[in-house]
Amino acid sequence: MRILIYSYNYHPEPIGIAPLMTELAEGFAKRGHQVRVVTGMPNYPERKVYDEYKGKFFITEEQNGVTVQRSYIHVRGSKPGLLDRLLLDGSFILSSLWQAFNGWKPDIIFATTPPILISLPVSFYGLFSNSSVVLNIQDIVSEAAVRVGLVKKDSWIVGLAETIENLAYRKAAKISVIAEDFATKLIEQGIDKNRIVCIPNWVDLNFIRPLDKDNYFREEHNLQDKFVVVYSGNIALTQGLETVVKAAASLKEKSEISFVILGEERARQQLQECCDNYQADNVTLLPLVAREKLPEMLSAADVGLVIQKKTVTAFNLPSKIPVILASGRPIIASVPDTGTAMRVVKESGGGIVVTPEDSQALAEAILELYENPEKLEQLGQQGRKYAEENFGSKNALNSYEGLFAEILESRE
């Protein structure tokens, strides 16, 4: 098959959808399919185009059997407002079309959203190339924007987003979702359930695996003989990292417990002010580790944190959940008590769920695991087992390969 992956993010961006799309593209290439990726210039999570890509409009690279076609994006500011977001998405819509047309015609176009506006060039190019479009839904933009307070529910922006979403859903040959709760939501919006397939996000279980806890990461950051609590990832509107800082401050008397938060530079600077305000000197703020060092960083933790605000989209599944489970470390999830994140953590048997934005509940859960090493070990083992059964990248590749083949057969 000739497969075009249309994704705003891709390697070398270290977190979010980029690692997933990279693994998917390279996995298809290893199976003998022709794969090209249309993507933007790397900029996430710093929201600043990486130095080696600055000032460039188009770049085509060959990476591990995949043709990667990058195009210009307009990035401005680490905390983009609505206008910045529209300029960002708009620039990618226009520039990416050039790269889409600059290559062989695909059989399948696999497009991941958000941003939902990506569906516009994808639908146009799909019609021109007579390709079938599979739309992968990682989040429902219209609802997410309201929940995090970016726009009001009755805003014209929400109405526009809903219109574009519905158009995109109806133009796609199939819609893939990452959790059953997404499917339920789409069916409520009038989408035929037979056009929806649930394929969870995945993790490379050979790459992310349980490793020795005493490794370079602990040594480098003076964490030997510590009980290490780690949060790594985006520090944005959907997270509530102040909750972690407050929990850390309340546990200062337990000198063996150390907190490590990894994120991009500007967000860390703001979080440092929060640490200073609460006198949380047991929190270490670090940059995100390179992708190749991720397994060691995860294994250096005793506990991995998943943090959300009360208002986050209930059916969203943070990509860090499968990753932490695969690393064999227990999760403490400060997430809404309904929805996908809570359900997966509880189903996995690999973690504890506490009320979001409740620093006391978070601190108590950390203390519980600190004082119960046997439970800590049990949760880690159960989480790894669940990841092996549910989140293997091989399973996802098989599912998508089968889905694409089914679509192509139905066209014959």
Characterise the protein shown here.
α9 links the parallel β10 and β11. The protein is built from 15 helices and 14 strands. The strands form two sheets. An eight-stranded mixed sheet has the order 3-4-2-1-5-6-7-8, with helices on both faces. With 412 residues, the chain is α/β, with parallel strands linked by helices. Helices cover 43% and strands 17% of the residues. The protein has helices at residues 17-30, 82-101, 119-129, 141-147, 156-171, 180-188, 216-220, 241-250, 265-278, 294-300, 320-326, 340-348, 359-370, 373-390, 393-411; strands spanning 2-6, 34-40, 58-63, 66-71, 108-113, 132-137, 174-177, 196-198, 227-232, 257-262, 283-286, 303-307, 331-334, 351-354. The model has no long low-confidence stretch (mean pLDDT 89). α2 (82-101) runs parallel beside α3, α4 runs antiparallel to α5 (156-171) and α8 (241-250) runs parallel beside α9.
Query: How confident overall, as mean pLDDT?
Result: 89
Structural category is alpha/beta
| SSE pattern | EHEEEHEHEHHEHEHEHEHEHEHEHEHHH
* Strand portion: 15-25%
Give me the number of helical elements.
15
Query: Which word captures the global form?
Result: globular
As laid out across the biggest beta sheet, the strand order is 3-4-2-1-5-6-7-8
Spans with pLDDT under 50 lasting ≥5 residues?
none
C-alpha Rg, in Å? Answer: 21 Å
Helical fraction: 40-55%
DSSP summary, beta strand count: 14
